[in-house]
């Protein structure tokens, strides 16, 4: 409610259109195993993203939802509904992807399979890691995203288990990745905003 509102009697709806809500972007941790490094990578992305301030970023940890293996239960576990509700409330995603046997983790595939509308007409970026930067896993994820109607952006930071992690466990990213992460976020924000108009 501002001065203009008082002077011209603008409705709340009009004002909402003029000052849209910030986009909500989920940073999805793709691994769930004990000892995983994905939380370190996710927090690093969140730190960079929060400094930009143009959207609300949050870490979304698949492990928190205790999803069963798809089709092995009657589907009434509260985590399944909570997972779908979380996705429904997000406008875009950054997937933290690790390479397991040249693909994404079973946990991430299962979590992807557990939703449909929650993914549709949203944008996503990928940050991957592995011996070859997780590139093979990331390319598999792009194919899956096509089916789920997630628009995957081009810029893709790839982290090396050899040079961006100490002993493969302590995350120490090289400086050079920063520009790429920001470029990826630029694209995720642009497309998340554009696709919001379709939903
Ligand atoms: C089951 C399994 C398979 C893996 N296969 C690959 C692989 O094909 N290529 C690769 O670069 N790294 C592979 N790795 C190494 C992982 O990328 C590395 O352990 C990474 O830290 C896993 O991510 P996380 O710590 O978040 O679970 C594999 C690891 C596991 C546990």
From TrEMBL:
Highest taxon listed in the record's lineage: Bacteria
Domain NADPH-dependent FMN reductase-like: 24-154
GO molecular function: FMN binding; oxidoreductase activity
Keyword Oxidoreductase attached: yes
EC number, as in UniProt: 1.-.-.-
Enzyme class, broadest EC rank: oxidoreductase
GO cellular component: cytosol
Gene3D superfamilies membership: 3.40.50.360
Similarity annotation: Belongs to the azoreductase type 2 family.
Name of the featured protein: NADPH-dependent FMN reductase
Protein's organism: Neobacillus novalis
């Amino acid at each position: 409610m501002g001065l203009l509102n008082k002077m011209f009697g603008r409705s709340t709806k009009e004002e909402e259109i003029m000052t849209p809500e910030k986009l909500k972007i989920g940073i999805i941790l793709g691994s769930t195993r004990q000892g995983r490094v994905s939380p370190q990578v996710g927090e690093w992305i969140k730190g960079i993203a929060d400094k930009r301030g143009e959207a609300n970023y949050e870490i979304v940890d698949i492990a928190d939802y205790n999803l069963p293996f798809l089709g092995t239960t009657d589907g009434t576990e509260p985590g399944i509904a909570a997972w779908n509700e979380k996705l429904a409330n997000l406008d875009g995603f950054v997937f933290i992807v690790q390479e397991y046997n040249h693909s994404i983790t079973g946990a991430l595939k299962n979590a992807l399979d557990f939703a449909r509308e929650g993914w549709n007409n949203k944008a996503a970026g990928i940050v991957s890691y592995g011996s070859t930067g997780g590139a093979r896993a990331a390319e598999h994820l792009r194919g899956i995203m096509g089916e789920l109607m997630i628009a995957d952006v081009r810029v893709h930071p790839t982290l090396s288990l050899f040079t961006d992690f100490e002993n493969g466990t302590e995350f120490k990213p090289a400086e050079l990745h920063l520009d790429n992460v920001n470029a990826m976020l630029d694209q995720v924000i642009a497309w998340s905003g554009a696709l919001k108009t379709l939903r």
